[in-house]
Structure formats: structure tokens, C-alpha cells
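Changelog note: in this version the structure field was regenerated for every chain. One regenerated record is shown below for reference.
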Amino acid sequence: MALKLIFFLIDENRFRHNASGSLGGEDCGSTQHILLLDEFYRTAVRMAGKRLLWEMVPVEEERHYDEYVLSLYAQGVLTPNEWLDLGGLGELSAEEYFGASLWQLYKSIDSPYKAVLKSLLLEAYSWEYPNGKLLAMEMKQRLHAGEIVSFGLDAYSMMLERVTRYLIEINDTTRLDLIRRCFYLKICEKLSLNQDDEGCTGWRRQVLTQLVYEWKWDTERLGILDNRNSWKIEQVRDAHNELLDTMMQSYRNLIRFARRNNLSVSASPQDIGVLTRKLYAAFEALPGKVTLVNPQISPDLSEKHLAFIYVPQGRANRSGWYLYNQAPIIESIIGHQPLEYNRYLNKLVSWTYFNGLLTEKSCIHIHNGEAQCDELKLHELINDISAHFPIRLPAPTPKALYSPCEIRHLAIIVNLEKDPTAAFSNQVVHFDFRKLDCIQLWRIATVAWVGSIDLLYRNSWNEVRTLHFSGEQSV
């Protein structure tokens, strides 16, 4: 069994004085401090080194944390160099909620199920503010009182319990169902499989079995969730939209909280700029933008068959290109919803490619109607895109996100759908360039040679966009 470990080097004094690092993939920069410390105190597992001093300070002394620690040193109860002291939790600044919620939205791009749980925990904290208690404080209080609850004070179980309590109190059954599914998928215990099949034993499976029984989930739901690695585009897109809607609702609720409390943002302007641009690049929907719908939801969206079908003007359906994940047989197409629609073929092909539906093993079909793109031209387009546009790239750096976006990869596609030169196929066309001036050549080129121009480009924020121009003005 592989285990992923991420190690952070922490300067004890630097952290205590709230000196943030550089915002990046795992470093939240200046967006949060107390909330980060709260998560660390309730989830940290000591493998070696000094013990955490914070656990020795009673909850009732948290407001006077530094004074209490100094008194322990003065009395000789503790020896300073034997303990790791990152400071007390004390008062949580309300200003921190906004930056922290942005950070969780940022993390949801790559890890949506965990980010939803943490965003709703932030929302629950803000709902109880200023009288709420951070989970780490609750955990410490129970430890000092000798109470073992929430499945042995497991950090994730306690987070689920707190969020559940909040959503029940505001009667939000929709998001309650979602966070239960997020929790289940994050734990990665497949209850629909027999223990003998996977060698599954241990307390986590017992805990999850008890929770699923309380939630009254049936075997069909468990089977769907356990089969997530086989989800295809329809299920992934539904999951993506549901997760995004929930994240944005949490964000809007926190914005309302900030307005009620007349808050300013505690994070640095540069960190806020980086976060908002990353969110803009990932989530904003624009007409020519290729929306990426699979942030680590399913590992394989590839389709065996992809059919691109063109519907001309004057039909019952709107004119444009329709995508199906099956061979274009009338019996299999009629009555089935297309996977995607777009007026232009370039955008539709790009969507299938960058979302992983289109691979080398996909069998491509085209029914072009009155369009002038045939199977050969379609395959040439696919080959060119796959050769020059890698699907996976490193995430944009904070420096790139803080700067204006620039085009990094660009394809100019001429006469994909409307090709005036098709009329000259297998013909020899003679021009006497001595008798043609520049204006005449321009008119010949724009009318007789160029019918449409498509652009496909990726910018420095890793957005993928398309543009289409047709007719005499396309050049």
C-alpha cells in the first residue's frame, strides 16, 4: 500500500509571529493563520522530535496562553527546549474567514471532496461566530476531561459531526447528503466489497459501516460510489457541477458573513490576486472557453466511440455540432441526449480532447451534413491538436497568475468547416501575378481561398480557449 507524505519545515518563532510563506500549491501564504493552526493541532501525528506544548495548556487558560506557559517554565514543571511551541489559538480573527474560504476554493480545483468538507467547516465556524469553539479546542477539552467521543476523537469524524450539526440546524438536507458522500469518498473504504475480496479490516471500515447504516444508504448507492474510478463524463459532469455549486454557496455565505461584520481581508493583496485569478481561470464560463470538468473525480473518461454530427440550418434542432459517445447509428442516436453541443467543430473537438474523452484508442465518426469537414480533415485536426497541446501541464506559478495572461500555445486552423478551395479539387488553377495587384490578390485570397479560420490557444493561466471566424471578414 502506497502512502503519500508531505513534509513542511516550520520555523517555530517565524510561525508564532505570523510570518507567512509564499503562496503556492500546498502553502496557503497569508490567507490563514489561526485556522491553519487549528487544523494542525487536531490532525498532527508526532512521529519524532519534540512534543506539542499546546496540548499541555488547559482550554480555560487559552486566552492567557503565553502567560500560562511562562508560569510553567518558571515553576520548573516544563523545560523549554523539550517542547514545540507554535502558540495558542486564542481569539480567531473574523477577517481570516474570507482568505481561508478563498484558499479552500483554490484547493477544490485539485481536491474537491476534501475542500467541500473544509469549506463547510469554515461556514459552520462563521455561523457560530463569535461564540463558537474551534474543533482543536473541543478535542483538547475532551482529552483533558477524559472523554473519548466521535470514534476516538478522529479529526475527520469530528469535522463531519460539526458540519452535520450545522446543516441540520439550518435544514440544508441537500448539502448534508453531499458532505456525507464527500466523507465516504475521501475515506476510500469500499463497503460494497467483501472484506475477503480486498483484505479490508480495521476500525475505519467499522466506523463507516455504522455511519452508512445511520444514513440509511442502500447497496445501489454504495455500488455507485465505490465504482467512482469507472465514472464517465455524464456522472463526472454532474458531480463537478454539484461540488462547484456547493463551494460557491459556501463562498457566498462567507461573503455575507464578512459584510455583516464589516470585515476587511487579512490576506496580502498579492495572495488574494493569485487566488482569485486561479479561480477565474478554473471556474469562469465563457463562450469560447473549454470547461474542464474532471478535477480528480474519475481517472479515466476515455470513450471507445465518439460521433460528431452536424445539423444544418432549418432543422428542428439548432444548427451546429452534436457529440455522442457511440457510433452514429440512427437507432442509437434518436432519443439519446448528446454529451455536448457547440456551433463550431473546433470547440467541440477541443472539449473532448482536453477533458480526456478523446484518446488514441477512440474510434472517431463524423456525419457532416452540409459541412465541408470530412473524416480525413477531422483526423488531421485531432492529430495536430494532440501533437502540439499536451493535456497535462504543471500548474501555473503564482508569478504567472499575478501577471497578465499571455498566449503560450496557439493553433490557427484554416477552412475547417467552410472550404472554398474544395471547388478547385483536382483542378489546376492559373494566375498571372503580373496582372494582379495587392488588392486583387487580397480579394481572391479572402473570398476564393479562405472560408473560415479557427483559433485554439492555451494561455499562461492554463486556460484553453477557442475562437471562430467565417465569411469574407474571417481573415
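Spot check on this record: The beta strands are 51-52, 83-84, 305-311, 320-324, 340-342, 363-367, 407-414, 452-459, 464-470. The radius of gyration is 29 Å.
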